[in-house]
Design a protein that fits this description.
Butyryl-CoA Dehydrogenase, subunit A, domain 3; Nuclear Transport Factor 2, Chain: A; RNA_pol_sigma_r2; WH-like_DNA-bd_sf; 6-stranded mixed beta sheet; ECF_Sigma-70_Domain; single chain; alpha+beta; RNA polymerase sigma factor SigJ; DNA binding
């Protein structure tokens, strides 16, 4: 006699964290990832689960295809975005997941199918037969998609990475130098070809275009030092954001900012600054204790 149909949440809830990670890595926005996973749950609830042999495979496939649909419209929205678009910063440590913010930015240059094939195979450990079912392509095509994506991502990986402890030391040193006006210290911390990316989304003050080169960055921070509020910003968190050493500051007017660092061979090669308040709601809850 066949057992009665179980509560759909009994199977779904243990898989929810993995599904959320897949959706976030695909989309870069937590709220969109949560919406996708919730839609996947509703579809799972309506599925004839008695005939499902591999619930995880079905749910990953559902989430992946929903993400691909979201990415179609997201491309248009990001083209219209004010200034530089950065993924939503999250404080997260997942063992074995080395997909940093820098690498997520590299994924932005891929097609949605390349991104899906790479993430499912290289990051989440699915074989190409499973990937093929998830994105509705032949296994051979999935191998090609993942290979092209891997080439792009490999270019973004640091050739001479530093230890986690050293990364946090450099982040702390940068915070001190950027607040004290120590030009020489800044120059010593930055690589010659360092880049700053800032995301204000048109809702917070931020440079619209990336700033390239150590000399231009030093001049930029010399201008920032003349803003009274900068020196009085409160450091509220130091740690890791999307796999990179980072810190979070709170301005006197309540504006939150995350600053994350890509580091190679002992120098900062990229700075990622997020000030768009829509992308900082989760950070605010985590480090300030406020809902928004």
């Amino acid at each position: 006699m066949k057992p009665p149909d179980s509560n759909p949440a009994d199977v779904f809830d243990p898989l929810r964290p993995r599904l959320l990670r897949i959706a976030y890595r695909m989309l870069g926005i937590v709220a969109e990832a949560e919406d996708v996973v919730q839609e996947a749950y509703l579809r799972w609830h309506q599925t004839n689960r008695d005939v499902v042999r591999d619930a995880e495979a079905v749910l990953v496939r559902t989430v992946t295809r929903l993400c691909l649909d979201v990415l179609k419209s997201a491309r248009v929205r990001r083209e219209e975005y004010v200034g530089t678009w950065l993924p939503e910063p999250i404080i997260e440590t997942v063992e074995g997941d080395d997909l940093t913010l820098t690498l997520m930015m590299a994924l932005e240059r891929l097609s949605p199918l390349e991104r899906a094939a790479f993430l499912l195979h290289d990051v989440f450990g699915m074989d190409f037969e499973q990937v093929a079912k998830a994105i509705d392509r032949a296994p051979a095509a999935c191998r090609q998609l993942a290979s092209r994506a891997r080439d792009h991502v490999q270019e973004a990986r640091p050739r001479f990475p530093v230890t986690e402890a050293r990364g946090h030391e450099l982040a702390s040193a940068f915070h001190a130098a950027s607040r004290s006006g120590d030009t020489q210290a800044l120059q010593a911390l930055l690589a010659q070809d360092a880049i700053l990316y800032a995301d204000g989304g048109g809702k917070a003050k931020a440079v619209l275009n990336p700033i390239y080169g150590r000399e231009k960055l030093v001049r930029f921070f010399e201008g920032v030092w003349r803003i009274p509020a900068v020196g009085s910003a409160q450091l509220v968190h130091e740690g890791t954001i999307d796999g990179l050493p980072a810190y979070v500051t709170l301005d006197p007017d309540g504006m939150l900012q995350t600053t994350a660092f890509a580091i190679e061979d002992g120098r900062i090669v990229a700075l990622y600054v997020t000030r768009n308040p829509d992308k900082l709601k989760g950070i605010r809850r985590a480090v300030v204790g406020e809902s928004s």
